[in-house]
Amino acid sequence: MILVMTYLLASLTNATSAYAQITKSVSYANMYARDFKERMDYSMYLAVIGKRDMEELGDGETTVNGILTVNPYKYIDELEETCDKLSYMATVDSNRNQIKRLKNSLKSLKGCVKELETAIDSGGAYEDKMNYLNENIYMLTSLIQKGIQDYIYVETTNYTNVKAELDARNTRTFVICIWISVVAIVLALFLTMKAAKSVTKPIQKLCRMTQQVAEGDFTVQTKESNTDEIAVLTRSFNDMTQEIGGLVEDIKQQQKNLRIAETKLLQAQINPHFLYNTLDAIVWLAEENRKDEVVSMVTALSDFFRTTLSKGRDFITVREERSHIESYLKIQQFRYQDIMSYEIDMEENMGEFMIPKLTLQPLVENALYHGLKNKRGGGMIKITGRLDGENMIFTVTDDGKGMTKEVLEKLQESIGKEKGDKSIDGFGIGNVNRRIRYYYGERYGVTLESVENDGTKATVTMAAQKNQPFS
């Protein structure tokens, strides 16, 4: 049993170390994946339009758009140093080659920044500088951003390899435990044949308990006999089942933690184009001196991201989720006011119930981009919420383009899988469905109804709870 325990502890330690190394590299890369492109692009844009020079950009001032300006040269040098650290932390060999490609792209970016700075100092034509910014700087920052995201993706997929290795070790450990149990049974039977009649009954009872352990029940305990030899054997059996049961529970907890980590990585990410388009719209309004609309847009965007971040919480209240989608729709209505209107109708008594964050927003985004946007004329998005016994039922309905029967069937099949087909399940619906089922059980989730040229209805069902299942 000491050898089994040592093997199990070594396996758990190795797995934990691997998870920690992957998490460390992914977290470090994420620090730059989130805002490298927007900070670099916007800083260079300010330099081109003459609102900042390179030294002023390095002051780290937060602009009206909420973006922290940077000195391009120092920022590129900082990312190059980060690339060296990421190469050292990488758990997959291919990611080290990816880092080399990233550093080459950074050198090219530095050269382009230098050329653009020269053009700015020489007073070249504004159109030429903007074209150079779009065709060189923006292209390279997009390439670097994608490179960092590819690094994160490859590191993340290594979780699967670590899990497979841990499962294989667990299987081997289980086989060893079974063999130990079998040996114990054989030994017990042999001793029973040699023992006196007074010890036959406790030995038979011990055999039955051993069989229960072999079947996976590690909670069994047997009463100690008055006979010294039997008492020693009984104590050993009880200790064995207790230790094995504890180790099995540790393995189950590790697997549960892994599943939670995978679920967190699956949470929907905000479309960067939505952020860029919103910021561009705010800039345009500011240039037009439409202050009231700028305040309204910035307030809605602030509320949207406040709920999105939620201080790292995985669960928020229904009231917060409603505020989140309302902020999102306010922003989108400014852009699509000619084609979109919306209505939110949720029962007031649902406000304090808990809901996984980003449950309804992906469905609303899907209704806008794949429903109303592809339809001629205006359309309506309606979001409802109501209590039905011990459940909460939400619907997101649009009267947009809808789907054919074949497309609907493929989408329903995809969102029902553990890992959906990204070419089909690209709207975030599958992500929402998998998270709800993981938190509440298989009988909950997302269902779809759609009629071509008539609209689509997404229904979300989950348990009504004021405490989150787990985080």
For the sheet with most strands, the description reads: 5 strands, mixed
Task: Tell me what portion of residues adopts beta-strand conformation.
Answer: 5-15%
Termini Cα gap: 34 Å
- Strand ordering within the main sheet: 2-4-5-7-6
Indicate the overall shape.
extended
* Chain-averaged pLDDT: 79
Query: From the alpha-carbon coordinates, what is the Rg to the nearest angstrom?
Result: 30 Å
**Which segments are poorly predicted (pLDDT under 50) over 5 or more consecutive residues?**
none
Number of alpha- plus pi-helical segments = 14
- Could you say how many structural domains there are in total? 2
Describe it for me?
With 471 residues, the protein is of the alpha+beta class. The chain folds into two domains: 265 residues; 191 residues, Histidine kinase-like ATPase, C-terminal domain (Heat Shock Protein 90). It contains 14 helices and seven strands. The strands form two sheets. A five-stranded mixed beta sheet has the order 2-4-5-7-6. Helix 6 runs antiparallel to helix 8.
Summarize this entry quickly:
The chain has two domains: 1-265; 273-463, Histidine kinase-like ATPase, C-terminal domain (Heat Shock Protein 90). Helix content is 65%, strand content 10%.
Key terms for this structure?
471 residues, 7 strands, 14 helices, single chain, alpha+beta, Heat Shock Protein 90
SSE blueprint:
Elements lengths: L1 H32 L2 H13 L5 H4 L14 H18 L3 H29 L4 H69 L5 H15 L13 H38 L6 H16 L3 H19 L5 E3 H18 L4 E7 L7 E3 L4 H12 L6 E10 L2 E8 L6 H11 L13 H12 L4 E7 L3 E9 L8
Parallel strand pairs: 2-4
Antiparallel strand pairs: 1-3, 4-5, 5-7, 6-7
